[in-house]
Amino acid sequence: MLHVMRELWAFMRERKKLWLLPIVVVLVLSGALLVAVQGSALAPFIYTIF
């Protein structure tokens, strides 16, 4: 996982694609949120957002 993050950062820095960073952060955070509440009572409410 760390290798993938390092490669992605190197790509964005080299190609001047730093505008992708907020998009990647939001996707990772929303994915982590979905995994975190998967088995809880909040799951139906979180899934309705998406």
Concise description?
The chain is built from three helices and no strands. With 50 residues, the protein is mainly α. The two termini are 25 Å apart.
Question: Keywords, please?
Answer:
single chain; elongated
What can be said about the biggest beta sheet? none
The Rg value, from CA coordinates, equals: 14 Å
Average the pLDDT over all residues and give the rounded result: 84
Low-confidence blocks of residues: none
What share of the residues lie within helices?
over 70%
Strand content: under 5%
Q: Based on CA inertia axes, which overall geometry fits?
A: elongated
Order of helices and strands: HHH
Could you give the count of β-strands?
0
Structural class computed from helices and strand pairing = mainly alpha
How many helices? The count is 3
Terminus-to-terminus distance: 25 Å
What would you say this structure looks like, in words?
The structure is a single chain. By secondary structure, this protein is mainly α. It has helices at 2-14, 20-36, 43-49. It is elongated, with a radius of gyration of 14 Å. The two termini are 25 Å apart. The mean pLDDT is 84.
